[in-house]
Amino acid sequence: MKESENNNTKTIDAEIRNLWSESINYRDHRQKSNDEIYDFIIVGAGTAGCLLARELIYNVPNVNILVLEAGPPSAQVNDMMRLPCTFPAAYRAKDQKMPSITEPTKEVLNKGFTYPRGKVIGGCSTVNAMVYIRGQKADYDSWAAQGPEYKIWDYDHCLEAVENNARENPDEEFKKYHGFNGLLHVQDSPTDSYEVTKDFIKVANNLGIPCNKDFNGDRQNGAGKYQALGRPYGLASGVAKIIAVNVKSCAHMLSIIWDEEKEDENIAIGVKYFCNGGVRNAYIAPKGEVIICGGAINSAQILMLSGIGLKNNLEANNIKDHPLCMVTGKISIPNNTSQFHTWCSGMKLGMIYKGNAKGKFPSHEEFLDEHPDIQSYVTTIVYDPIINEYVNSKQCPPNFETVTSVSVLNPPLSAGHLELCSSNSFMQPKIFLNYYEKPEDLYRMMSSLKLLREILKQPSLSTVWGIKELGFNDEFGKWCSVDEEMSDEDWERYIRGKSYTSFHPCGTVKMAPESQGGCVNHRLQVYGTKNLRVVDASIFPNVSNGNTNAPVAMVAWRASRIIKEEYLKK
Ligand SMILES: Cc1cc2nc3c(=O)[nH]c(=O)nc-3n(C[C@H](O)[C@H](O)[C@H](O)COP(=O)(O)OP(=O)(O)OC[C@H]3O[C@@H](n4cnc5c(N)ncnc54)[C@H](O)[C@@H]3O)c2cc1C
Hints:
This protein is α+β, with helices and mostly antiparallel strands. The protein has a domain at 1-30. The chain contains 14 helices and 26 strands. The strands form seven sheets. Strands 1, 2, 12, 13, 14, 15 and 26 form a seven-stranded mixed β-sheet that branches. Strands 10, 16, 17, 18, 19, 22 and 25 form a seven-stranded antiparallel β-sheet that branches. A four-stranded mixed β-sheet has the order 7-11-9-8, covered by helices on one side. Strand 14 and strand 15 form a beta hairpin. It is globular. It starts with a helix and ends with a helix. Mean pLDDT is 86; it is low at 83-87, 232-237 and 341-345. The site of flavin-adenine dinucleotide has 42 residues, from helix 2, strand 6, strand 13, helix 8 and helix 14. Residues 43-49, 68-71, 85, 116-120, 123-125, 127-131, 252-253, 293-295, 298, 302, 425, 503-504, 536-537, 547-550, 552 line the site of flavin-adenine dinucleotide.
């Protein structure tokens, strides 16, 4: 190391030491006992928790913050988990039997599956697929329509605030719908999409789905390339700021500590958590608050376990998620694109349109409808569980290449629920998703899969790539009752047997008036409590018509402004 660099490092080290000891003195001065005291205790360092901590520390002067994260720091996470869509915290969505929609005298099974969440600093943003579709104006305007005080949540107040779009030379139209100075990095996907996926989009265009160059622009429908989220999130970049945020990883919050002297008022004064083999208490300072950012499953669980007055609403409350289902085609024309199964081949291209509510092939009007409800991706990753098993077996030849198109129901009418299975907060709650309980959900999904199946049969996919559909009436599945034809009953079995989550649970601690089943008010304060807020995907009044990471970031950004305003007034 050169001498000048060496001196520089020493100065920075000294600066860090000074700042550190200043912060310890400050903390000691405030602490009257051995318990830890903070202005804000944030539980969960996922998308919301990280962004909220970052915004509070930069915007509210002289506060100290504790962030508790049940998972490890992302630096300790192995390379496997760094890949998008590898699943560090797998929960399980339960098997569910329900009456068939197409044959009401029969019972059908929604097959359960592993339900991944990111348990790590960064939460699900660490493992997500990075697709950036932030939803329709109408989604957020419906949040705002719940009362005059909910106006702060309308579209115009929301998403542009957090976005930092890196599109080069954006035109005036693009600038109208995007932010360029926020924290959430968004970029165009690289241009190296595989030819077969590009051809899929060309075929979709030929069938009448228009091109769309910006799915987050004035209209959502069409076919084209999705923009992608950048990663990773940072809690803070300045040394002084980092010192004021105490981030504890592998620190699992056990329960809220309530003020026992005012038992009836449900005043949160701190949290109990498990860390380094022991149980600890952390308390909030007089103006402080506890902010739960545990994500849609765990925030609801934490509140249910705390057993306060909102129990009834929570149990009645819904978990909303976007179900997905897929069709797969085998690429038969030999090629030497041996990287087909790598991650980067996925999720860059797709289309958005309206599914037919009676299960028919979507009409031209449905392709042009400006309130679409199906988001499809095309990828060379295998999604179908049965085909995937084959791909990973010894029987699978090395040149076995596929293209898959996945449809996501955006948003479903059906809603599920969570159930506590233990008072132990380490035990995951039971997840019942209730996919396709409402007939329209099933029929819209059926309609979109009919379209995807048809696309696979069109030239150039059938000619240049020799694509043959897989999994309908072959060794991977016997779903057709007659030859290639699928009856509605066949489709129902197919869809229920193969559906999976698109990882977007939300709505379990809904922001809504209490009389409408809400658990938090428009300022995200938990009804019937003091000093307690929830800030994450669980507060969504309804699931947005797109991916959820950006809306969660928006919720955290908005919450930071609300919290700052109230803190400075106290
Ligand atoms: C595999 C996958 C792919 C995805 N792909 C996309 C995509 O392409 N585009 C998109 O927009 N969205 C995507 N999403 C969804 C998006 O990432 C989530 O909606 C978003 O990250 C949720 O943020 P959150 O803050 O609500 O919760 P999370 O990010 O889940 O954060 C919650 C955090 O709280 C911690 N926690 C929970 N309980 C406790 C406790 N008791 N004590 C301490 N800590 C606790 C958890 O460990 C976790 O780190 C994907 C999600 C997954 C899982």
